[in-house]
Design brief:
The chain is of the alpha/beta class. The chain has 6 helices and 12 strands. Strand 9 and strand 10 form a beta hairpin. The longest helix has 16 residues.
């Protein structure tokens, strides 16, 4: 995935300004920074939840239209679960799987539910879930997909230590399979065992970035 001089405006306000990013297969990047600096905006543009205002976005070797282009090879988890609260988790994931025409859907669905330790909640309506259980349910939607690029906004929100460990192991396995991950986090200790580098966003640009356990690089271009 490549971003060149990426820009995003909301009305007269510029959120992202000439931002540059290169991520290769099997790498993971954490984006950090204060509230309102554009972390969620960047992820939404990468995932085509939002279009961009300028610059180039390239995914899977192809330039994406300015307005954004949905792609089943992209899995996005934002601040909303994107699950129907009146349906059970099993019903939500089955519906999602049928839309994606996933093979061996029942087997894959049960596997992910088990991995995330959601079996005892699988037939409860999602609207009854606690914050942490809802977060695991939202992640289940991503983990059962065929996505090659995972875009995750604060994926550990609401998770207890056990949930964090489960999700960490699943992310590491995804990297071993060659999937690319870009996520945001306010708590870097949660993600340092997962990501290859951390980039600090400030003023719509990368103020600095560093490889895990490496020196900071004062540059607006992150390359992994």
């Amino acid at each position: 995935m490549v971003c060149r001089n990426l820009e995003k405006r909301l009305g007269s306000r510029r959120i992202l300004a000439s931002l540059n990013l290169v991520l290769h297969r099997g790498t993971a990047l954490a984006v950090t920074g204060g509230n309102g600096v554009g972390k969620s905006t960047l992820l939404r543009v990468i995932a085509s939840a939002w279009g961009r205002s300028g610059g180039v976005l390239e995914r899977f070797g192809q330039v994406v239209a300015v307005s954004g282009e949905p792609d089943v090879r992209i899995g996005y988890v934002g601040h909303q679960s994107l699950l129907y609260p009146s349906l059970t988790l099993y019903e939500n994931l089955a519906l999602y799987g049928r839309l994606l025409k996933l093979p061996d859907l029942g087997q894959r669905l049960n596997q992910v539910i088990s991995q995330l330790q959601l079996t005892c909640y699988a037939h409860d309506v999602v609207g009854s879930y606690s914050r942490g259980t809802l977060q695991r349910a939202a992640l289940a939607r991503l983990f059962m997909s065929p996505a090659e690029l995972w875009v995750m906004d604060e994926p550990f929100t609401g998770l207890d230590c056990g949930g964090q460990q489960i999700v960490t192991e699943m992310m590491l396995e995804a990297k071993r399979q060659g999937k690319t991950i870009v996520l945001t986090s306010h708590q870097l200790p949660e993600v340092q065992g997962i990501v290859d580098a951390v980039a600090e966003l400030k003023g719509g640009r990368f103020a600095r970035w560093w490889r895990v356990d490496g020196p900071a690089i004062l540059k607006n271009e992150v390359t992994l």
